[in-house]
Amino acid sequence: MKGSFRPSNPAQLDADAAIIGSGAGGASVADVLTAAGLSVIMLEEGKHIPSSAASPIASEAISAAWRCGGVTSAIGRPPIVYAEGCCVGGGTEINSAITQRADSALIEQWRKLNKIENFTPDELTPYYERAEAAVNASLTPGPLGRATDILRQAGEALGWKVSDLKRGQRDCKGANRCSYVCPSGAKQSMAVTLLPKAVDCGMRLLAQTRVHKIRIEKGRAIEVLAQSRAEGGPALSVRVKANMVFVCAGAIHTAALLRCSGVHKRVGDTLRFHPTIKATALFSEPVDAHKSRPPLAAITEFMPDQRIGGSVFTPGIFGLSLAEDWKNRGDLMRDWRFCGSYYGMIRPRGVGSVRLIPGSNGPVVTFKLVPEDWTALSQVLTRLGQALFAAGARKVFPSITGHEGWTSPDQVHEFWNKPLPKQATNLMTIHLFSSCPPGEHRDVCAVDSYGRVRGIENLFVADGSLIPEAPGVNPQMTSMALAFRVAEAALCHSPRERARSASRDRNQEDC
């Protein structure tokens, strides 16, 4: 990407604004600021992976674009595996580009709960529309393949609502490599859309540059301290002075960076996931899920609290999913063309945290499921099993280590009235948010209604960290909408007004 560079010597840079992170949040902020004519420097820990360099091999692709090869997990009982992008474009490079808005009733609930100013469905609509236009959110024409038809067939058989899913795409080729980096550039990730636009407007993008601290003095973010390191090369110091600093590193690393910079109050205390349980379905006829796009329909009968959908499926990713119980599931690789991978997702009541421990290589993430979450997981797994048998599955294997699998729809009610085995249940998520919720409820909210960190005049959060609770849908559109909103507010509110507000915050914290 033109404008993406790494300094050859230690660098001291200046700009109107510094943006930390290049995913959905950071790219949206850059779009607003560069359009207003500001000089912008963006710092991204990961490398830039052009579409032409995207590997078709699962292990190589995941190693290149996913943080820690996709094997990070939150400590809990059980641990929950989560995935984060670590490349230019962030999580938008490894997700399926599904575009959904948060439910209007939830938005109203969040507004009242956190006392968020100017935060109604109508007030957020223009920001959602801007996000959808940026990625060309649209339905995919033509046949979508058996993997999608299975969900539609299940909904029809059971009388459950099924919704077609829009994606951020332009002329999708159906390569089914969404969890890698799209090889054709058809997936409208940030590296294809807003980032090149911002670079064309003069933004400087430093890839492979990890920010380790924001220096804060007298209620202002004074300097961003980072190191730039190419593979095999020396680490070079990068220091950026900016009038405004936007932290857009994702729900986990935004909270971790703020805490590392001395900002602790209510930061990283309210992390939320979408705990997700999967099931593998074996059919009598070939599904050939690898030949079509990811399933572009979802069972939405039980939303926003529960949702049933389908996963990206390639032989490599399928093999990785079976590895959680290879002893009992490895034989399914022989029948991989007859298999599909599906999931049930819940909105949890449990809460996680992000903390720093001296000597650790990264933030420590914990998440505690509460009894209501286990009930919801049991329900959604039962409904997932019902759906797959209704669509003609011959056998269904829930993501529970040692489970022999179900061979008839009568068996799927096994866990309806009893909890899942905590030690054997394998949970994961790709949706992370809520570590820095906004609002004027000071006992809960880490930032104000417009993303400004309390007590600091020119420091803002603008990514999925701001989503007040789990939205029950893919969070990218909401992350972008809130980031647009934060950036516009930062431009509209005068520095003097922000300084007065920061001073009030500090005085109230001292009381």
Keywords:
511 residues, alpha/beta, 2 domains, 12 helices, 28% helix, globular, oxidoreductase activity, acting on CH-OH group of donors, GMC_OxRdtase_N, oxidoreductase, FAD, FAD-dependent oxidoreductase
How far apart the termini lie comes to 49 Å
Helix content: 25-40%
Strand content: 15-25%
Shape: globular
**Main beta-sheet annotation:** 8 strands, mixed
**Radius of gyration, taken over Cα atoms and rounded to an integer in Å:** 22 Å
Descriptive notes:
- The chain is of the alpha/beta class.
- It folds into two domains: 4-48 and 100-134 and 191-269 and 434-510, FAD/NAD(P)-binding domain (3-Layer(bba) Sandwich); 146-178 and 275-429.
- The chain has helices at 24-35, 58-65, 104-114, 121-134, 146-158, 194-200, 250-260, 315-322, 326-329, 371-390, 476-492, 495-510, and strands spanning 4-5, 11-20, 40-43, 72-74, 80-82, 137-138, 162-164, 167-168, 204-206, 209-217, 220-228, 236-247, 272-273, 276-282, 297-299, 306-310, 339-346, 351-355, 364-368, 395-398, 427-429, 432-433, 459-461.
- Helix 1 runs parallel beside helix 6 and helix 1 packs parallel to helix 11 (476-492).
- The longest helix has 20 residues, at 371-390.
- The termini are far apart.
- The relative contact order is 0.19.
